[in-house]
Model the fold of this input.
Amino acid sequence: MQLINTLSHKPQRAIYILFFLLFGALLSSHAFKPDECFDCHSDPEIADEVDPPNKGLYIPEKKFYNSVHGKEDCNVCHRDADPDHDGKLKPAACDSCHKAATRKYRSGLHYKAFKEKDPYAPTCATCHGIHDMRSSKNPYSPTYSMNIPLLCGKCHKEGSEMIKFHHISKTSMVEHYSMSIHGKGLFESGLKVTATCVSCHMSHEILPHTDRRSSIHRKNISKTCMDCHTSIEKVHKKVIKGKFWKQAHKTPVCIECHAPHKIKTDEKGKKGVASFDDAYCMSCHSDSSLTVTDNNNNTRSLWINKDHFEGSAHQDLQCVKCHVDVDFSRTPVCKQPQKVDCASCHQDETDRFSLSVHGNLSSKEDPDAPDCISCHGTHNIKLKEDITSPIFRANIPTLCSKCHRNGKKAAIRLEDHSHPDMVEKYEMSIHGKALDKSGLLVTAVCTDCHSSHEELPSSDTLSLTHSRNIATTCSKCHFGIKQKFKQSIHSPEYNTSTKKELPACNSCHSSHTIKRVDKSAFRQGMIEQCGNCHQRLTDSYFETYHGKVHEFGPSKTAECHDCHGSHSILPQSDSLSTLSKVNIVETCKKCHPDANENFTKYLTHANHRDKERNPSLYWAWFLMTTLLLSTLFAFMVHTVLWFIREFLHHAKHRTSRQTMRPPKKKRYFQRYPLYHRITHILVIISFLGLTATGLPLKYAHSGWAKTIMDFIGGYQVAGFIHRFCAVLTGVYVILHLGWLVYMLIKAKRLPSLKSIFGPDSMMLRWKDIQDIIAHVRWFLFLGPRPRFDRWTYWDKADYWGEFWGVTVIGSTGLLLWFSGFFSLFLPGWVFNLATVIHSIEALLATCIIFLVHFFNVHLRPSKFPMDPVIFSGNMSEEEFKEEHPLEYERLVQAGELDKHSVPKTNRFFSIFIRIFGISAFSFGLLLVALIMIAEWNNFFG
Done:
């Protein structure tokens, strides 16, 4: 744009600019004719004029004009030349005319060596010359077909400096070529159509045989040979009768039989391959004593069992098919053989193997690395369909266990690996048992998951066991499950928004320890599996009945997959989800046949400590816990003070009581009638049964809980006992209420207010308040001990506490027991509330009975080890006077004392009730100790 503006506004200046541009172009395009250059370069002495001497400066005119470049100007190649140049020019730019050849050269081995400043790296001039280049059709040209072996031999012949410098293992190539059918055809018969070096290796794009682009790569060598041998398939069909390949019209890899550089005629004049038939080989190798000793003095047998070979997969192949390096020039012909290259027939398998862990180890010559023969054998190779083959499906685990079984070389190398004892675990898995016990060949074996040849670590994205590929791997057998999984929240195809790593098959089913999903052991482990990702939900699950029962081992209680599904897990908002509004009732009915819409509103993952998510449960838990702690605190203070005061009082008056003369005949009075004693026994049995079966469920996470539950017979037996004891509780409550009604009917009149609050009533009175105050004052040495009537304040506290506990625990227990019925008119969250209240109230009742009630009636210093009165119903006159003085005096004044007199309890019955009583409260104290251990672990564990 600036040039246009200049030309349009200032014509004179533009003319000057254009003139100089044209002049410069003319100068730059000036061609330097050879005659101009030969003014200097035809002088033989020009080489001596530079330092160091450069003989290439002298150019014979005749040779140049006779070359292919004789008609070209010098600066076509020497682009930086000018008439007055001084010093060396840049190398000639061959690519200005020979772009294709240069491009091929730069992709080959020779240019790579040149780039690495290899002193023997050939360039264009090395093969074509410098100023005397001739056409490849010219017999005097080094690139003429008859001269190619001599040209290449300058570097590649035996003993050359290049061979010595690079330590090339493939030696005597030129010599072998000269003795081959191709070499003889060239040198002896003058057949310029015979193959030379460039016929196979190409002229410019020379590549190693390992490069897939190379003309001599195994996949390309047949095509290369067929440039000359166009009818090779027809010839082979006639000569070999189709034995060299399994598939029709598949060309064999030529070098399998025709060793490179050594292609010869046999002794009978047949063209192409040296004749080594199997009989020739077996003339030596049928000898069982034939051995060879290597450089490490290790001796191995060279004997080949003919029967094994003839029954092998290679029975139709000749020995030379695999042992391609046999040569009549050696004695014996197989002296110092190379390792058999299975890739000659099994290229795909070999390529995959080279990428695997095994292949990498093998390439490093690791002594533990397996190779082809480690799995397939040598001369007794069997097809995989043969049941005697080590690679037959049923034999694969045994084959792999040779290295990977615990204690074997691969297992030792991988002892810190994440999959120890993999073979042993596989054998115990559903796949292993299906194979070993049931003989199911369709079950998964090692190669189904790890592949046959391309074994890769699971961290490799190409591995069949990589997290991205594991579903596809498993779907080879479990296709239907994969289709379900693809439509689940765990599938990346469905859950496209998450950045988290999603679970795959082995996240839940592990790798080698896969169990049957219908077995309890698998179900038991699923909660922990889900908890790896869903920790909060799993923690809340363990607060529910389902979660607590799960802690006791294999069970049929509901677990994650029972509600959410297994492979087709979907969010609740999806209409296809098992927890959607459409399907949730049916999901619950799988375990709860009477479930309804209200029932489904149960908060399955509610956490009563989460105030924000579950406020109603939180406040219920908070208030009940406050009631528990405050009640326990008040009663425990009362109990401790009482123990200290009575202990001191008892110790002070012990001596005086011992010196007192006992009465000649003790009198006993009835404290409790038979009905009360039977009711109390029912209370003991039901309460101990309820606590023994309920506490393990509440503290299911504690080790002792599972021990008790196992002792009982499992959670189902415990549930039956718990409900039976609950019914027993209901029975004695109903009996007691019936007894009260019976007493009213028996009295034939309604009770008066005086009798309701009289000394024989269990109703609270002002006297009870006075007794509490006086008793506490006595504890603190501030007053005398109060004088009690028939019922003390702690008797009444036990009585009304029993009614409170039965009412609260019983009502919430009924809600949970008959949840299906109550859900007809109550929302599901009520059952969450009932669970919290039931649990804490039961704990309160347990602690009050075993810590407070036991002390009041059994463990006080004056009653220790127990007071049998509740079982015998009788108490001595001395105890009557001391424990209930007001009642005793009232009976004396009324003249009714003798009406309550009873004989002494039978001795054997007395022993029995003491054993029963001591056992009962010992068991209760044990449960209290377990509660304290569990609570300690909750706070500090």
